[in-house]
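debug: dumping io for the single-chain case to check the tokenizer round-trip. Nothing else runs in this session.
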Amino acid sequence: MAKLAATKYSEAIFELAVQEGRVDEFYNEAEVILKECSENDEISKLLNHPKVSKEDKEHFIEDTFGRVISKEMTGLLVLMIAKDRHKDIVETLNMFMAKVLEYKKIGTAYVKTAVPLSEEQKEKVLKRLLATTDYKEFRMNYSVEPELLGGMIIRINDRVVDSSIKTKLDKLAGDLKKIQLS
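debug: decoded output
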């Protein structure tokens, strides 16, 4: 149920942002809110505290964010509190930001390799991704996992391309186990 609510709220604010031509503005405001929420545990404690009234929570949001974000984004937060959906705020904003990135054709790629890639190798990976997808730009996230032995694993959304040696060896081992000796 929470995922459904977050989806509905994120879609609503996204549609408004597109309709009003304020996609970048709302995206930046969502970043500000998420940054504040992650850096300040007091916000979460206050919003989740059962003895703090909805009205006090709404006033807190208006006082804290009302001067730095638009009335529309403040209104979304206040509405979510009024509807007892304050626990979905972070997920809603993350979903909204993901929708904006898709709308702007900006992908996020997670690349795992056994050894660190050089800048030249990273550039080749980026160029290959741009050539084989519909994205105009990528936010690249690299990590090193020596247990891969070689090759790489690339994840974009729910698509995974695994060319790691570890996976190939695991598949070969599985195939060899299936062979029955007579």
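debug: round-trip ok. The longest helix spans residues 2-20.
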